[in-house]
Amino acid sequence: MAAPRALEQTSSHNLEMTIHVNDTAEKIGDEFDYAQRAQWLRAAVLGANDGLVSVASLMMGVGAVKTDIKAMLLAGFAGLVAGAGSMAIGEFVSVCTQRDIEIAQMKRDQQKKITSNENHEEPDENIQREEALPNPAQAAIASALAFSVGAVVPLLGSAFVRDHKVRLAVVAAVASIALVVFGVLGALLGKTPIVKSSARVLVGGWMAMAITFGLTKLIGTGGLQM
Q1: Is the distance from CB of 59 to CB of 205 less than 8 angstroms?
Q2: N or C, where is the chain less crowded by C-beta within 10 Å?
Q3: How far apart are CA 150 and CA 174, in angstroms?
Q4: Alpha helices in the chain (DSSP H)
Q5: Using one digit for the tens of pLDDT, what is the confidence trace for 190-223?
Q6: Full DSSP string of 120-159
Q7: DSSP secondary-structure letter at 163?
Q8: Where does residue 45 rank: exposed (0-12), middle (13-18), buried (19+ CB within 10 A)?
Q9: pLDDT tens per residue, range 15-65
Q10: Distance CA 45, CA 139 (A)
């Protein structure tokens, strides 16, 4: 009777260990891998930040030599359209190149396994891997939209301000607030330090606007008039 009891206790203990291991694995599996967000988060934050900084800097540069509100708004709108188109085309080409490289690598791996006579389910695996690759059209649309969202902020912020100096201050202030917001959103979505992310985005935007304003002002006062 001792042997069956010992066997029963051992089986029960192994069953409990198996359940515990499975529960732990499920908990680990349920934890979200924030690295999966890296690609689309980078594209979204980069696009919105690029749109904001590019258009705000462009408007600041034009405002350095022109007091007319129409000149600033037209320059900003042109920057929005051109930048969104450039981002969309650039992202489309980039993702297409990435897909071509990865698909070519899959084919090389498949050929190596066929040559070495390895047993595998390569066709199904390759199809799944190919379906998991990013879509170029979706990436292009997302980049264009993200750029437009960022670019429209300084345009709307300064559209109804008539005084030239106040308009420049409003563009700088609105852009600064939006930069902080983008930095915070990026940090929250990616679970990264908020202060560090926001400060990096804000300082970079300030530098771009200041350099554009300063150089345009220098060229304008040097004799080149618009």
Answers
A1: no
A2: N
A3: 11
A4: 2-30, 38-65, 69-115, 122-131, 136-158, 164-190, 194-221
A5: 777 888 888 988 999 999 999 999 999 888 776 5
A6: --HHHHHHHHHHTSPPHHHHHHHHHHHHHHHHHHHHHHHT
A7: S
A8: buried
A9: 344 444 344 433 434 444 444 455 566 667 778 889 999 999 999 999 998
A10: 13
